[in-house]
Every structure is written in structure tokens, then in C-alpha cells.
Amino acid sequence: MKHALEMARLTIGQTHPNPSVGAIVVKNGRVIGVGTHMKPGEPHAEVFALQQAGDEAEGADIYVTLEPCAHYGKTPPCAKAIIDAGIKKVFAATLDPNPKVAGKGVQWLRDEGIDVEVGLHEEDAIEINKDFMHFMRNKRPYVTIKTAVSLDGKMTANSGDSKWITGEAARRDVHENRHRHDAILVGIETVKHDDPQLTTRLPHGGINPIRIILDTHLSIPFHAKILTDKAVRTIIVCANDASESTEKQLNEIEHIDVLRMPTDEIYLNDLLATLAEDKIMSVYVEGGSKIHSSFIHKQLFDELHVYMAPKLIGGPTSKPFFNQNGFAEVSQSVKLTFESIEQMDDDLKIIAKPKR
């Protein structure tokens, strides 16, 4: 199963809206077939592994990181392929929370007399597809907040300058995370101040996330890179009273979609529900400080990535990444659990999750 999990990890970020899955076929202690799901519309991991095993699959075991599907979509159900191949036993790391599957694949296999064991390395399997799992269970995108700060928690110097707080290793890791997320989100002030591309720039390429810009009054400058580069679909979110003429101009740009919310401000709960309807399963929130603070204050985040540099910035007008008015008492603070701390050259990467 560990090898199947490694196969699944290879395709994180490139299978949307499907989960990343790995499969290994074993017979008499030998690996006779391996597979992973490459991208939507192509065969699933089990099919690739069974094709490689060929006739030897009869009487073999298959290890798969997610319950085999039991429905017809763009590809036939994997449960049927397993049955037709004559597999003797199936080890599934975890059940699939998709209502179209949700135990149906396992039941189908058992009904055909195939032995099925569920739960081997389940936590690892859930972590690989945490976005997919969360989306299927909660009908809301998995939200990751990312920030780069100095040791004293500052995102910028007094002038607003923020390039570069962290080093190349940390910035490369950010691009890996852009590749893995369906969408990236920033506020309009970040666009105006930094004119970012918000694309994935890795040595081997990578997939660009959908760009989401929160721009209540549609004040985005038309020379902004995200409007002119045509790199990827870009959603500009505005409030109900934003300029209709500006909306029309923006919608005429090929890769731009304006999302007008039905309220006089952008409510994050409503926005996430709307993004879920668009099958956006994961959102990478890159800032700025006001946007971070809104997600944290409303506790609408599932993971926090803090890249911390060994620098002290200080200053009365430099910005912390969480810039709400704060709390009267420590007991009112947002409680977190540290998941991991990793050294990245001179910097640290801290991953934390809300304590719920």
C-alpha cells in the first residue's frame, strides 16, 4: 500500500475534479502491475495496473488508495474491471466519500465474492486527497492560507515593500502549492500594489490555478498582468453595486469572468458556496493582510502555511499577516494545532490547522 500511496502522490494537482489514486497488483509476492490516475477522462489507476498485469491478474491481490468507483462517468467503473480481471482480494486504503461511490464499490466487489479489506494506511490516503474528501463531505472548497513573514510576524516593511522576505526554496514551495490547488485568491490591493501573475512557475512547468480576485468595486487597473496575460481563467468577484459598464468591459476579455455577488459586500461564506458550485475544491489564499484576516476572523480556513524568515522588520506601519483589531483576552484567540515544521534553507515552513 505504501507504494500505491507514492504513486498517488505523483499526480496531486493534475487530476481535478478527480482524486489522485495509485494502485498496485501483487501475485505470489511479485508486483505485476502498477498504475496511477493521470488526468480526468483517462483510465483510473486500477485500470492501468490491471492492464499491465494482463492475464496474470487472475487470482492476484490489488492495493488501491481509494475505494474503486462503481459508476459510469467519463470512464467505466473500476469495480467492474477488478471483477472481470478475476482479482482475489482488494485492499482499499479508504472509502470514497463521493455520493456516487460511498461504499457502493466495496459492496459490489463483496457481492461478487471478492474479499475486501478497508483501512490500510487510511490516514495517509485521506491526506493525499484532503481537498477532495473535504469538498465531498462539506460541499465547500478546502481553504489554505499562505503567508511569508519575518520572525516578528511582519509581511511588509513600513513602506509596504515585501520582496523578498523568504528565500528561493520557500518561494519554490509556494509554486508547488499553486500547482496543487484548483484556485488561488488575493484581494484587489495585492493586485494594485504588486501586479502579480499568480501563475505556477516551476522548472518542469506546472498547472496554473484559476485566479480569483476580490474586487468589491471593480477598481482593477486594466493594465494589470492578470488581465493582459491570458494565462488562465480569472474570476473577478465584485459586490452588487459595482460598475456595470466596467463589468461589461472586463467580460469582453477572453479569460475573464466577473462574478457579481447579490450583496453590497463580498461575504466569504457565500463566495465559497458559489465556488463549490463551480467544482472548485481547493483555494490557496495568498493575501494580502486584510484578506487573510477576513478568512481567519470568520474561521473559514482549513490549513495555514507560514513561511518564516530569520529577519526582524518591526515598524509601526509594517503589516502583520493577521491584522484584525485583535481580541480583548488571550482566551478569545483563534486556536491552532501545529501539524509540521520544516526547514527550507534559511527559512521555516510551519503548517497549522484550526483546533476544532
Automatic annotation (TrEMBL):
MF (Gene Ontology): 5-amino-6-(5-phosphoribosylamino)uracil reductase activity; diaminohydroxyphosphoribosylaminopyrimidine deaminase activity; NADP binding; zinc ion binding
Stored CDD domains: Riboflavin_deaminase-reductase
NADP keyword on record: yes
Reaction(s) the record says it catalyses: 2,5-diamino-6-hydroxy-4-(5-phosphoribosylamino)-pyrimidine + H2O + H(+) = 5-amino-6-(5-phospho-D-ribosylamino)uracil + NH4(+); 5-amino-6-(5-phospho-D-ribitylamino)uracil + NADP(+) = 5-amino-6-(5-phospho-D-ribosylamino)uracil + NADPH + H(+)
Pfam families the record matches: dCMP_cyt_deam_1 (PF00383), RibD_C (PF01872)
Keyword vocabulary terms for this entry: Hydrolase, Metal-binding, Multifunctional enzyme, NADP, Oxidoreductase, Riboflavin biosynthesis, Zinc
EC number: 3.5.4.26, 1.1.1.193
GO BP of this protein: riboflavin biosynthetic process
Function: Converts 2,5-diamino-6-(ribosylamino)-4(3h)-pyrimidinone 5'-phosphate into 5-amino-6-(ribosylamino)-2,4(1h,3h)-pyrimidinedione 5'-phosphate.
The protein, known as: Riboflavin biosynthesis protein RibD
Organism of origin: Allobacillus salarius
